[in-house]
Design a protein that fits this description.
The protein is an all-beta fold. Strands 11, 12, 13, 14, 15, 16, 17, 18, 19, 20, 21, 22 and 23 form a 13-stranded mixed β-sheet that branches. Strands 32, 33, 34, 35, 36, 37, 38, 39, 40, 41, 42, 43 and 44 form a 13-stranded mixed β-sheet that branches. A ten-stranded mixed β-sheet has the order 8-7-10-9-1-4-24-29-31-28, with no helix packed on it. The two termini are 17 Å apart. Residues 1-23 form the signal peptide.
Length: 475
């Protein structure tokens, strides 16, 4: 299994790719030029890509080759935008899935907020930043046919940004499947992508393919786990055009000094300004945005670069708003231009800004602690209501007592009492004494309960340790 660590980039409505094809001029940090960008979008009405808003009044929308409306383009979908970066305006938005295939296996390691799915020989990382529509991580199983949008690395790993269930009871050979990835080996009759073998005997125009090409393959799989019989295969290049200006969101495949390799894209960091304060090291698997001019050879020289790590804090509670500051479970929440904003209230307008948040709003905050200890939101979801408040994150400041125990979970002050239920990673109830003997600083923990805003604590009904390992294959 590919165990490379993934880091999240969360610019906006999906993980999007923005291509400037109209000869517009972008000026940023004193540099001008036409170009293209990959990134993610986070809002509607205006399409937000890499923290930049694009008007969509006259935009044409396409999803998986079909003409659609803006309402069909969902947060998390991999999207290409063609338009005018200077306006900025989107003339054409095209979203396309990366995978349509059954789940072959599910592996979870450590905290149950993340999992790796085995899908057509590819390892697909799913975590709290994956937009799961109509399902949940716990509900996924190997009979499901899933529609996945993802960032793709040349090491065979995919970082899912959007996942929905196309069929809850998939029947082998009943559906044409799709896989996106890089060619590892190639012959006249077959190729391999990860652990998947693709039969090419029924396809044409494969003579121009080469090892290392990124391709999209459609075909049928007669039996689960067997070869994919390709009906069509095409290159799926996202390389920036030479002589353009690029705004690129990538998974890093390799690092050579100050140069990043991501598929066929090469990015020179040089004197690039680091925009985030996550402290995350840029290494293989890191998800970055790099912006800058592209020379005649295709090298992108970054003016700035931004990294967002995988989320390590998840809070659910009611908002408190004072002087423009948002607090949830007594934690100040910082936002950035690339923060995803998801409106889930029934009947509410899809357009949503952080300034729209009001005291008492039910919010889910997904984010990370930066080098200053501040909580930076990578996603904020506003909901109708929350049955319980909860905190997920690193355990610290554990103070035990006969009647109650105090601790911090993801920075939130948590208080237990005689009615609190303590659980192991499997959800099995354990004695308070066993919990206290096991719970050491740094362990990932989750607490559910009632928020006491008057004193800024979460009074826990239930608390669970999440740092054991469990592997679930072919659930």
């Amino acid at each position: 299994m590919n165990d490379r660590r993934f880091y999240r980039l969360v610019p906006a409505l999906a993980a999007t790719c923005l291509t400037v094809a109209c000869g517009s001029v972008l000026q940023l940090a004193g540099i001008e030029g036409t170009g293209d960008s990959t990134g993610s979008a986070s809002g509607y009405g205006s399409l937000f890509v890499n923290g930049r808003a694009f008007a969509t009044d006259t935009t044409q929308f396409t999803l998986n080759g079909e003409t659609v409306t803006e309402a069909d383009i969902r947060i998390g979908m991999q999207t290409r935008v063609e338009g005018d970066l200077l306006a900025p305006r989107a003339d054409r938005v095209t979203a396309a899935r990366s995978l349509l295939a059954p789940i072959d296996g599910i592996s979870r390691v450590g905290a149950v907020k993340a999992a790796t799915l085995s899908i057509l020989g590819q390892n697909v990382q799913v975590d709290e930043m994956t937009r799961l529509v109509g399902t949940s991580l716990d509900a996924l199983h190997s009979d499901m046919l899933v529609d996945v949008h993802a960032l793709v690395s040349d090491g065979g790993g995919l970082l899912a940004t959007y996942l929905t269930v196309a069929d809850d009871a998939y029947v082998p050979a009943s559906q044409e499947l799709l896989v996106t990835g890089y060619i590892d080996t190639l012959s006249a009759t077959e190729l391999t992508m990860g652990s998947l073998t693709v039969d090419l005997t029924a396809t044409a125009d494969t003579d121009t393919l080469a090892v290392g090409d990124r391709v999209r393959v459609q075909g049928h799989q007669p039996s689960r786990g067997g070869n994919l019989i390709a009906t069509t295969i095409a290159r799926d290049t996202l390389d920036p055009a030479p002589g353009s200006y690029a705004d690129r969101a990538v998974l890093v495949d390799g690092v050579d000094g100050n140069t990043l390799i991501a598929g066929a894209t090469t990015i020179a960091l040089g004197g690039a300004q680091r925009l985030d304060r996550s402290g995350a090291t840029i290494e293989p698997g890191t998800h970055v945005i790099a912006r800058g001019p592209v020379d005649a050879s295709g090298l992108l020289t970054a003016v700035d670069v931004e990294v967002l790590p995988a989320p390590d804090v998840v809070l659910r509670g009611q908002a408190a708003v004072q002087n423009g500051e948002i607090r949830v479970l007594d934690q100040a929440v910082a936002t950035r231009a690339v923060t995803q904003l998801l409106e889930s209230r029934a009947g509410a307008a899809r357009q949503f800004a952080a300034t729209d948040i009001r005291a008492g709003d039910a919010l889910t905050i997904v984010g990370y602690r930066d080098t200053s200890g501040d909580l930076v939101a990578t996603r904020i979801e506003r909901q109708d209501a929350l049955a319980l408040a909860s905190a997920y994150g690193e355990l610290s400041e554990l103070v035990t007592g006969d009647e109650s125990t105090r601790m911090r979970v993801g920075g939130v002050q948590v208080v237990t009492d005689s009615e609190t239920v303590y659980e192991s990673v499997a959800g099995t109830e354990i004695p308070k004494a066993v919990f206290e003997a096991t719970a050491t600083a740094g362990l990932t923990t989750q607490a559910w309960g009632v928020e006491d805003q008057a004193v800024g604590v979460l009074r826990a009904d239930r608390i669970r340790l999440l740092n054991s390992e469990e592997d679930i294959a072919g659930r």
